[in-house]
Amino acid sequence: MEKVWRERLLSGQWFSHLPLSFQDSLLAAARERRLLAGQRLFQRGDAPCGLYAVLDGAIRISAVSEQGKEALLSLVEAPHWFGEICLFDGQPRTHDAYAVGPCTLLNIPQATLLRVLDEQPQYWRHLALLMSHKLRLAFINLEQLSLLPAPARLAHRLLMIAEGYGELDSPRRVLHLPQEQLASMLSLSRQTTNQILKDLQGQGIIGLGYGEIEILDAERLRALAII
To answer: What ranges do the domains of the chain cover?
Structure first.
């Protein structure tokens, strides 16, 4: 199984750039976990449970207010890793994580990974790089929320998802992303999101299908994202 896991994870930038010895340590400690559609992985306030990698499917990272309103922060797809914050501070989980559909994950338990890091402290730097990459993306998203018009924000987010937020060497052309989820990630209404997507479709920049968005002209979409 480790060979299959490695091949899947090597398609991602973070894992593929790790020292072979650290790759081996992670895979040796890993446990495969399968979730059904809508099944909870963890929720805000849960104790740390280690580092995860998505092998297949997607995980929905979100938060819900006391009034029941949900903020969708991210859809974590293969071959992304997540859950590293709790390794650094040992604090409870900050958000909820649910399987969008059937999902297969790798989990490196917290205690096991901390033992590896105690023995090989130089590996901490690689986990810091994983976390700093996500922090950089969060700052970019906050800046765009304040400064960019909705169409530019939407265009930029589509490109980022297509590129796996910097994890994939070859951008995807078809995104399996319902419009309501995209709207939630951008803090836009579904109506506004639908109108922008329809405009882009009318210009031949994207194509729309049931629960998916196809990028037809990435260069024109990129031009819109930097307005």
So the answer is: 2-132, 148-225
**pLDDT of 98:** 96
Q: Are 60 and 99 in contact (CB under 8 A)?
A: yes
Joined tokens for residue 63: 């938060």
Which SS3 state, helix, strand or coil, does residue 218 take?
A: helix
Domain 148-225, CATH: 1.10.10.10
Q: pTM for the whole thing?
A: 0.89
**pLDDT, tens digit (0-9, with 9 covering 90-100), for 31-71:** 999 999 999 999 999 999 999 999 999 999 998 877 777 88
CA distance to 29, 108, 166, 177, per residue, from 112 (Å): 7, 7, 28, 35
**Would you state the pLDDT for residue 227?**
58
Cα–Cα distance measured from residue 143 to residue 153, given in angstroms and rounded to the nearest whole number:
10
Question: Do residues 81 and 107 make contact, with C-beta atoms less than 8 angstroms apart?
Answer: no
Cα dist from 90 to 73, 99, 198, whole Å: 21, 24, 45
Name the class of domain 2-132.
mainly beta
Cα separation, 187 vs 81, whole angstroms: 24
How far, in Å, CA of 183 to CA of 226, rounded? 19
Torsion over CA of 10, 43, 211 and 106, rounded to 10 degrees? 20
Tell me the percentage of the chain whose pLDDT exceeds 90: 78
- Whether the domain at 2-132 and the domain at 148-225 fall into the same CATH topology: no
Give the residue-averaged pLDDT of 205-225.
94
Q: Which two tokens stand for residue 152?
A: 């530019």
Which residues are bridge partners to 51 per DSSP?
A: 108
CA 106-109-115 angle, 5° bins: 130
